[in-house]
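Inverse folding, one chain.
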């Protein structure tokens, strides 16, 4: 049997990730592969660490990409900071808080859950009550930007509460890094992880992480070995540590790291504040068009992520059929709801390189056309004008 080369269709990616990849990043991936201990590659690794420090707004020495997707970044944080018997307070307001709980349990810890309604931010008062009720707790974990709902929580306030009760913090910034403010040092976050495929507009498969000295002190003084050999920071740092001499740990994904380096260069050239403002501006344009059409956001504006928008599916509309039409007729991908929101919402992302005026206009026009064809109860003929007005076009 003969197999032909795979040539993927050109899509506009406006789901919850991956996002559109900048052409400069795709070009970077095609550069010649060199050894992962080559002096030239080691020099690039050092630049990548510095660029990640800029993206995270931190001076943490241990700031690096894990050679695996964001879920591995999450597991790295928990595997290194949670020991058997530890009590960990986990705030859950969507799918990914539930994954934090799974990690605590697999590390032998005891999770104490602080539950909030999906689509709402984590309630600091509920966290404070849990901290008072469980003085033995040593860690607080929460999702800064909940990918399943598009809700953003007040990371600064939650970290302050945790520290007031002598707890370290683990923060999920998979969807927020590069799209909305993430200030690791100013907010005193102890451990944080993200992903390459969201607002950084890189290909999937890498997870930037950063650990404070306070967190590393706990890692150094563990009573038990880290349960994961691959994610043990004591070993990984032999490769990602400072200086020209590196100890072999694993064969790093060389070309993927070229891509991340280029993605971070693009972010640095634009400037963090400009990137945050671009995502906000295009969110407001998307919002204007969708609301003119009659669609409703599930997250209050005060807690809404600009880069990931969860909107309610109109009554009587077939979720999967609409997404299939968008993909088939317009090469446009939007995301389905997860967990309790499956079949109830669409998740529309405009992250990184996807956060462009032409993408917003395409999304609004295509969605109106498909919904109108489906007989949905929406307002027609007004959404595109509202979007253009908000864009300043």
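Residues assigned per position:
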């Amino acid at each position: 049997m003969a197999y032909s080369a795979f040539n993927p269709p050109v899509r506009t990616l406006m789901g919850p990730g991956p996002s559109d990849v900048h052409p400069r990043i795709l070009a970077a991936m095609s550069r010649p592969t060199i050894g992962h201990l080559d002096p030239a590659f080691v020099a690039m690794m050092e630049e990548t660490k510095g660029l990640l420090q800029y993206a995270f707004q931190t001076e943490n020495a241990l700031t690096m990409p894990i050679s695996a997707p964001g879920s591995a970044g999450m597991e790295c944080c928990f595997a290194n900071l949670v020991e058997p018997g530890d009590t960990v307070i986990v705030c859950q307001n969507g799918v990914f808080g539930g994954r934090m709980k799974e990690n605590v349990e697999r590390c032998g810890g005891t999770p104490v859950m602080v539950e909030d309604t999906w689509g709402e931010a984590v309630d600091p008062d509920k966290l404070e009550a849990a901290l008072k009720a469980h003085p033995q707790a040593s860690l607080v974990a929460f999702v800064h930007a909940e990918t399943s709902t598009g809700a953003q929580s007040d990371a600064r306030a939650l970290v302050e509460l945790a520290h007031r009760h002598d707890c370290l913090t683990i923060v999920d910034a998979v969807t927020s890094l590069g799209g909305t403010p993430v200030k690791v040092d100013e907010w005193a976050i102890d451990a944080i992880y993200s992903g390459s495929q969201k607002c950084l507009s890189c290909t999937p498969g890498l997870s930037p992480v950063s650990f404070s000295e306070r967190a590393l002190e706990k890692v150094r003084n563990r009573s038990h070995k880290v349960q994961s050999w691959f994610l043990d920071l004591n070993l990984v740092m032999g490769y990602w540590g400072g200086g020209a001499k590196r100890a072999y740990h694993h064969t790093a994904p060389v070309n993927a790291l070229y891509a991340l380096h280029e993605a971070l260069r693009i972010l640095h050239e634009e400037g963090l504040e400009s990137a945050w403002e671009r995502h906000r501006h295009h969110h407001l344009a998307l919002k204007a068009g969708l609301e003119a059409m009659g669609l409703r956001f599930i997250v209050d504006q005060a807690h809404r992520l600009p880069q990931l928008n969860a909107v309610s599916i109109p009554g009587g509309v077939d979720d999967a059929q609409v997404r299939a039409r968008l993909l088939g007729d317009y090469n446009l991908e939007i995301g389905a709801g997860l967990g309790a929101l499956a079949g109830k919402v669409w998740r529309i992302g405009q992250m990184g390189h996807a956060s462009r005026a032409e993408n917003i206009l395409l999304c609004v026009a295509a969605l109106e056309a498909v919904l109108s064809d489906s007989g949905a109860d929406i307002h027609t003929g007004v959404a595109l004008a509202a979007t253009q007005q908000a864009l300043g076009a």
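The chain has two domains: 23-268, 272-391. The first helix runs from residue 23 to 29.
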